Amino acid sequence: MKYLKCFGLALLALALAIPATAGRRAIIPVETEHTALILAVRNNRVLETLHFGARIADPKAFEGFVTGLSEDNGSGPMAYPTTGGRYIGEPALHVKYPDGYHNTELVYDSHQVQVNGNIVTTKILLKDPVTRLQVGLIYDAYQKEDVICAHAEIRNVGAGPVQLLNYASGSLYLEADRYYLTHFHGGWADEMQMDGELLTHDTKVIESRRGTQVTQCNNPSFLVSLNADRLQENVGEVVAGALAWSGNFRLSFEMDESNRLNVLAGINSFASTYELDHGQIFATPEFIYTYSDRGAGQASRNLHAWARNYGVYGGGQVNPTLLNSWEGAYFNFTTETLLRMIDDAAGMGLEMFVLDDGWFAKDYPRNGDDAGLGDWEVNTAKLPEGIDYVASYAHGKGLKFGIWIEPEMVNPQSNLAHTHPEWVVQSPGRETYQSRNQWVLDLSNPAVQDFVFGIFDNTMKLSGNIDYIKWDCNRVVSNFGSTYLGSEQDRFFVEYTQGIYNVMRRLREKYPDTIVQCCSSGGGRVDYGALKYFNEIWTSDNTDAFTRAYIQYATNLIYPACVMASHVSAVPNHQTGNVTPLKFRFDMACSGRLGMELQPRNLTERERALADRCIRSYKEYRDLVFTGDVYRLASPYEGDYYALMYVSQDRRRAVVYTYCLKYQNRAVGAHPFRLDGLDPARRYRVTELNVDRSCWWGSGYEHAGDFLMNGGFNPVLLKTFDSAVFYLESD
Ligand code: DGJ
Questions:
Q1: Burial (CB count within 10 angstroms: exposed 0-12, middle 13-18, buried 19+), residue 487
Q2: Which of 457, 469, 514, 581 is most buried by its number of CB atoms within 10 A?
Q3: Is the pTM here over 0.90, yes or no?
Q4: Is 356 touching ligand 1 by the criterion CB < 6 Å?
């Protein structure tokens, strides 16, 4: 409320800036260093989107711009399309008023621009003259990163309550002859599978209605290639975007009869009509987007730079390598098991030990996934010396210590389920279905938010040596409902997600330095809403290096490598059964935040020696993984190889990863990869890492950047799962 007051006053001062001039448009440019979103007020005061793409030296050139559209066929490209008026497409905003009518026609009222260093914020106030509904459109333009974050603030100043039937964060009109949409689908242990299609007329929708674990099937992100039949890495125009929301989401891509594409991104209003009382305001989450005229590569680099600087908690900070207990011990451990794992982790040069599931609950001990969730006390039958003993032991060995929690859930077999049955997500008279033997706690209820905050807080109090929390969330919502919300069940999905954010905000105030991983059965909560509070994601429960090539390639199109946790596990892989060489597993895990997740005792001496080497070299170059620019050299979705590199901002250092995913016949020989992002005029010393014998003739020598970028780099990778990592350095 306070914010809106200032907003209103400031806008008033500038309201006279744009007079209605017959036949001409008043231009509101939202610009970054290389891109521009050109918004324009027509003389009927409607705000339209005239351009999103390359920056134009003189945006005023759009003042006389004619769209050629006939209003007989619907309205023009409105900046925030609403149900009502002449608009007949998918609305960003659909409101039902107390008198039962559905029409909203927003017109420009005023705007203001604020410059705050690298961020230029444009706030535009739109009003409906009949219902007096107000919408503030807020665009934060990140100059250097070429990223715009848009959101809307919907304010009801009318007499009675209104119902928001749709309330998207933003609309983005694009104009091209063809649009190729790339998006991400999947399932458990199979997240972020790249999918794509050439859009045809009408509407393509990507959405999630799962309540929790929302990104395990689809991800709230996309890339649209303009005038192309496929996603290209280095050429062509690409618009990439993502929604910062960890709940149900909806992205729609509507190609209308004028061939324009309207992209809408926002909270999914499925079962979530939002009632706004007089004086209330609803702020949508941010719709983040960028434009590239150098293919998907530059679009990713823009999003990653923004994410490291603004979008990820602790973004760009180097997070420790670790050994996680899950795949090595599952629920079967004693204090002794953990201490020996800590010894081995320290011996291999890892920097943290993470105790996963299975350490808690006394009356209903957590010795399997069927009991204990909700009862967050140490299981002293299993760990008689307690957590502090183990955490301090790790610290004594020079390791940090992390621990697992799943605070949003409860097993029916728990004290919590008996003491607070009303906290469980449920619908009266219907079965409260179990999934992984558990129920979901109702985070729309402030008492449950306090409880969940307390779980984290009390876990931190188990030892002064807890550096890292792995926050898990292992099921979706079914038979949704909240005893707390009573007759206002429409609020459930939105307020559940807001509830998590409330908890995370409080936790971050109290624990600003704790590293927190966002896990949801793997990649079930991978979005920029969660990443405001979490340092990293557990990319997938699938630790098989071969299938990780596909998951990590696609994840990295939108999310930076610094958030992508990637662990070396045992073979045959526990999820896929694949058997891959240890070197291949390390080379894959080293392209994200490196970890291990196996019983180190099962490694041979030779394997231990390789592990030592890989971990040591990773620690020397990993700042490139956390802060470098990514250049993808070969896509696993398109050929037999996967290859990528990270380049330092000054272009003096780089690390290159190459992987062979399919056997090459004997005639193939060396495979040329065109390195990218280097300074063509510099000379780079190239060193192959993680091996005894190099697979490239040029390793150990200096080479010119232009040679490396034009086919000179050609390692021999012929067998399935051959892989190589190279470090490049220039004076
Ligand atoms: C699912 C996670 O993704 C795994 O890594 C592990 O933490 C298990 N839950 C533990 O139950």
A1: exposed
A2: 469
A3: yes
A4: yes
